[in-house]
Hints:
Organism: Sulfitobacter porphyrae
InterPro entries: BUG (IPR005064), Bug_dom1 (IPR042100)
Low-confidence stretches: none
CATH class of the largest domain: Alpha Beta
Family: Belongs to the UPF0065 (bug) family.
Pfam family, one: TctC
Radius of gyration: 18 Å
Protein name: Tripartite tricarboxylate transporter substrate-binding protein
Amino acid sequence: MFHSNSVVNSAPFIMDQVNFTPDDFEYAGMITAYQTGLVAHVDAPFDDLKGFIAWAKENPNFAYAALSPEARMYMDTLAEANGLEPNAVPVQSGGEMITALLGKQVIAAFSGGIHYRYPDELKTISATTTFRHPSAPDVASIEEDGYPIGMDTRTTLFLPKGTPRDVLERISDALSAAADDADFKKVTDGANIPIMYMNLDEARAEIEATYAKHKGILTDGS
């Protein structure tokens, strides 16, 4: 299965019917990462997270678009730490989120990266990942701003538990070759999805570490 690692390191903590653990699968590697972040219209009266928080303190009951439980978690954390009064506007898709931002129906939203398709109309306020976004390298991550809640979403190759090591190595090598492929890079560059390859051992370590971290973030806020 080629899927986001969130099915293992986040979904179990926000969906009652999901109970996967890192030990339920083998991992052949990871290849790309999503540029998730807090975004706003270019006309918004702030350009970074500190500016947004200062503005939000002066504008209670501000509306923001929330597509996922993670989006609400991020805003709830910021609100609790800074005495903000947000008003979540549920959206059902990335398209609805973009429409709400472009139409200025909300002041901000949490995006999975689709906002980078609109560089003249939308701006990133904070990278909600542990790394700065390649598409916006001057924008600080939420962890750099003092909130240890960055969560990375990486595309991962899952295999059944017990898949032999030599099979995993062959697939991991193939994934590495794809990461270096010029045509594949054109596709990912066009979609603003950076290539961040990890081999099979790095992928397992990433899954295990983020499973523990995300459990703390999504279940008790620690």
